[in-house]
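During the no-cost extension, the postdoctoral fellow (Dr. R.K.) reprocessed legacy sequence entries with the updated structure-token encoder. One reprocessed record is reproduced below for audit purposes.
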Amino acid sequence: MKKLNTKGMTIIEVLISFVLIMIILIGLFSIVMSYRDKATKEALKEEYISFKDIVTKDIQNDILKRGLQKVTQVEPASSCGVDIIQCINLSFKDGTNKNLFVYDKQTVDAVRNKYIQYGDQKYKIRDDIPADSEIPSGKTALDYQSVDVYVGRLFEKTVVDNYAIYGIHISLTYLEFEEDYGIHIIAMTEN
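Re-encoded structure tokens follow.
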């Protein structure tokens, strides 16, 4: 009869096995977290692209279907609403008018309500800012606002021969991306 080996593993062998398994698990965890971060960024990019497409499509549909007559700067801009810095008015050949402006006040309450308004339609820029109860102490909603809105070139007009060329630009940039996800529309009318 043959005698069985009942020795088992030594403590050092168990410890080495445990360390090797932990190294492998840590490596796998870092790979999974890296892919999760990439997926989150890509989803955010898609959200901005979709936002830009929706707003641009609505404005372009009006320009094409109603026929753009002219675009003018609204003075004073505050006539479009409180805390509005720039506002433009699009006049159409069917006699309708629509204002376009951005509400971009940088206060804790206003960050949650940042939007672009075209006519009666409000397009909310960000919905992912946490509620006050979910924000860690020492931070505010402003710490989560990472979209910069630039309307310095909201309205441009160039006259060439007998045509007026209008540029409408609302730049939306996100801190982690280099791209501009804003609304940029060029339209031309006879002057």
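The mean pLDDT is 83. The CA atoms of residues 112 and 149 lie 14 Å apart. The remaining legacy entries will be reprocessed before the final report is submitted.
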